[in-house]
């Protein structure tokens, strides 16, 4: 239909669409439209790839959830994905990775982090465009350096922490929370843990993420929610502030680790055990890194997930053929 309208416009101007000039104009317009559509699709896939989803529809569900929980953050998440995608295309990064959204999900997370931790309106936008673009070549380098092990969100952590180490968002500690924690808060904790993957504090956003995961595979949603529960329980067990726990801060890294096991491993009793143990270990790592990086007034982001998930992924090779764990 767009090509037909373009041809009609050319005819009105006295240019035949089948003449060299007209055909060239239509080809250029069609090429531009195709490139824009491809870039948009790759960017929205990047939103889903944060939680290992590679379908545009699933990415749209996640983005809608972000828009409900924090509209401004959702905009920067989309900007980050588009910036990283554009950089990857300009640098001619592996086309398969670009098409799958694997070159843009780190950019999406950069947008989320800068929306949450950088003050003002202009600074987060400018930083997102620049920082997200930097994740594209960095993720390509890290992919090669990590070999068979996925680089997960290392590129995001490197870029975001570099900026946040300068701005020090935790230099002034927040006022102590004095609101009472009710049953509804406790019940919503696992879903809030899912939403905190994108630095959003909303059970509705978490529910949207769970729905998108269930669309791909019901076990993905189950593992992610269970991982969030395990991380929260470990947080309480080690004496974490209950307000931090109900706001999902102890659940999101653990949810990602458990989800990564569901995505990369064949289902088995061993893989279920690994998901639980990995989620618990991730929460312990989060506690340690939270304290260590807190001294520099920066958050731990998803570094605990990267460390734990990489360890889980390497286990089958370490155990050998006699091990019970099998990668897909």
TrEMBL record:
Reaction(s) catalysed (UniProt annotation) = urea(in) = urea(out)
Source species, domain of life: Eukaryota
State whether keyword Cytoplasm applies. no
Q: How does it sit in the membrane?
A: Multi-pass membrane protein
- Record's subcellular location: Cell membrane
Query: Which keywords has UniProt assigned to this entry?
Result: Cell membrane, Membrane, Transmembrane, Transmembrane helix
Which family does the entry's similarity section mention? Belongs to the urea transporter family.
Question: What is the protein named?
Answer: Urea channel
Q: Which organism is it from?
A: Aureococcus anophagefferens
């Amino acid at each position: 239909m767009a090509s037909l309208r373009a041809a009609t416009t050319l005819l009105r101007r006295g240019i035949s669409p089948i003449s060299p000039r007209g055909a060239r104009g239509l080809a250029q317009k069609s090429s531009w439209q195709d490139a824009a559509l491809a870039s948009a699709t790759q960017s929205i896939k990047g939103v889903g790839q944060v939680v290992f989803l590679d379908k545009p529809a699933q990415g749209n569900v996640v983005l809608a959830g972000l828009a409900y929980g924090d509209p401004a953050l959702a905009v920067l998440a989309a900007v980050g994905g588009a910036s990283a995608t554009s950089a990857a295309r300009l640098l001619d990064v592996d086309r398969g990775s670009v098409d799958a959204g694997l070159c843009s999900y780190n950019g999406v997370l950069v947008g989320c982090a800068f929306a949450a931790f950088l003050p003002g309106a202009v600074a987060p936008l400018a930083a997102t465009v620049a920082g997200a673009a930097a994740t594209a070549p960095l993720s390509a380098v890290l992919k090669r350096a990590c070999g068979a092990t996925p680089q997960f969100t290392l590129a995001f952590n490197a870029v975001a922490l570099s900026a946040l180490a300068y701005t020090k968002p935790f230099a002034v500690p927040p006022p102590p929370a004095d609101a009472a924690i009710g049953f509804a808060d406790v019940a919503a904790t696992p879903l809030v843990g899912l939403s905190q993957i994108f630095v959003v504090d909303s059970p509705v956003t978490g529910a949207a993420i769970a729905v998108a995961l269930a669309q791909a595979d019901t076990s993905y949603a189950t593992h992610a929610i269970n991982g969030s529960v395990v991380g929260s329980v470990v947080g309480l067990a080690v004496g974490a502030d209950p307000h931090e726990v109900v706001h999902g801060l102890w659940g999101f890294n653990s949810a990602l680790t458990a989800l990564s096991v569901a995505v990369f491993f064949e289902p088995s009793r061993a893989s279920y055990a690994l998901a639980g143990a990995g989620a618990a270990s991730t929460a312990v790592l989060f506690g340690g890194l939270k304290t260590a990086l807190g001294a520099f007034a920066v958050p731990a982001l998803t570094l605990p997930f990267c460390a734990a998930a990489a360890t889980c992924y390497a286990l089958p090779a370490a155990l050998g053929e006699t091990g019970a764990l099998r990668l897909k």
